[in-house]
Structure prediction request, 699 residues.
Amino acid sequence: MIMSFFRWITRRPKRVLTAAILLLIPSILCFIATKVNYDVLSYLPQDVASVQGEQLLEEPFHAAATSMVIVEGMPPKYTDDLLSDIKKVPHVSNALWLSGSLGIQVPTEFFPTELRDSFYSGDSTMMIVQYDRPLSSEETMEAVVSIRRLMNERCYIAGMSAMVEDIKELVLSEIPVYTVIAVLLTLLVLLLAFESPVMPFLFLSCIGFAVVYNMGTNILLGQISYITQAIAAILQLAVTMDYSIFLYRRYEEEKRHTDDLPEAMARAMTAAFAALSGSSLTTIAGFLSLCAMRFGLGPDMGVVMAKGVVIGILCVVLVLPCMILLCDRWIEKWQHRSLIPDFTGFNRWILKHRRLWIAVFLLLLVPAFYSSKRVDIYYQISRSLPKSLPSLQSNEKMKETFGIATEHVIILDRSVDNASLEEMEDRLKEVPGIDKVLSMNSLLGKGIPDFFVPDRLRDVFQSEDYQLVMLTSTENPATDRMAEQLSSVTEIVKAYDPSALITGESAMTEDLREVFDKDYVVTSYLSVAAIFLIVMLVFRSLSVPAALILAIELAINVNLGLCWFRYKSISFIAPTLISAIQLGATVDYAILITSRFQEEIRNGKDRMEAAVLAGSHSAPSVITSALVMFSANIGVTLVSRLYLIQEVCTLLARGAMISAFVTAFMVPCILYEMEPVFRRTSMNWDGSGKKGEEIIQKE
Prediction:
């Protein structure tokens, strides 16, 4: 049935390719229409306290996002006019400046000291701007852009919304650049590896189709993360190129048996579809393991990339054959010798010194696993961004001028009386690192009567059912000192209102730390278990998957452990992505060489000759695949100023080379030494039809 279908395709390559090209049009339109989320914290689970607090800020306070605007060295009239202009910006729900709320004719000396210090410092003043849409929504980011246009060079806008807008602009400017670099570097690798200079262009064209289709179908998800958008195309290129290479190599083999090119291609497509459907399962399992994360970024990337692998396979077995058939005469016309050498002598040398490589393998296990677990992980989003971004410079200005590194927002029940509120605020002021406490209670102080406070200012702090207390902190988010501070604040606040919620960047970052630490463990174990099961079913063995996964896990932990030896911190997302993606994508290297080893054993070769042949025949494919993944990711590393993206791609590039090294140097030695164990713990390992138990009884 499937063979007939493939024969139908190979007899109509122009029609199929035309249909594939036409499908690019809706895919591109859907890709353009797909929304991109630039706020990492928005992927926190909805049931954590800080997220619930954010939801209350959105409704009933209509303060889904907040920015601080600092005006330096300008007269009150300018600031008041700026305030009026900001209030007119669409989706700005509230904008307040102390003098603007109470009147610029009221001397600042009349305000309570703490209140005055919260809004004034030297010749600088600060206003609070609130938005009626979430901080990462398009409407809020457009409002930030509009506010920036209103300000002069002595004004600064700080806060998460401004940071998200900067991330958006940076991502949109970088993606085209490093995508082109990744394609060019990959093209260079393929031109060196293949005999025909035409084939690399066909491979990249096929992957291009798959990438566009994948990005277009993302519209079905509603939106995707900017991290996914930034590296999905690069990853899809890196992990699916093997499939194109496999199909072409199989087509070359089939051409030796028939002069009917469409028939040869149909046979190659049938063989490739069966083989790739199985081998791709490990890669798909690695990506899908990310869907087990509570942090929404995992499912976001997992679904997009697993879908990308499936679409990649379909393009390889449907689109690429048509391209090859239409270009076959040019492929045959231009040929050169592949620059990848023969590895037979190399593999004999490796196996001759197998005890040395086994010893290296065993000696590396402990330090690799030890160091990888001690890599310094950072959770502060701003650390993954270049310091030159306007939002980060504004945040630094706010810290230097007003001593504010971050803010906490406490949401209390309206029933908490003023006496309890004043007592709670006094206790909060004693918490190390808490600079100022701002609430309706502190606004009134002892000198301003209740009726004197404008409704606009009152609406910031009170609703029908809730009231807010804002804390400014001198501690940076995602630090141990911040964790201690939040713990103390939570303990104090809960004593007065057990249902109170604490939110803000730091509270959400702490929740992110807790959620992600658990997600990392779950994802790591799940990816290993899923891939173990797949390899076990492929080889019908318990020992083979254990050996292969241990080898790739060594590569993963060496990769992560190098960060510890280099005293380099990495972002929270990197270890989880690397553990799942490097395992899923590069365990295929080990499966490839093991499959060939088993095939040679079944052909009657002794284990030494089988290991030599498996290594020499598999090495070119492994090296080419690793170089493709390296070149695709290293282009991002060289260009991107987003450290989070840069770190992930650096680790993927380095991980591919380490996995290739482990596969080339250590896996043949492991296969040789473990072959007797494989025979005893596998079903029909040598093709005799006997189970491992029967072999043992016979022996």
User: Anything to note?
Assistant: The longest helix spans residues 505-539.
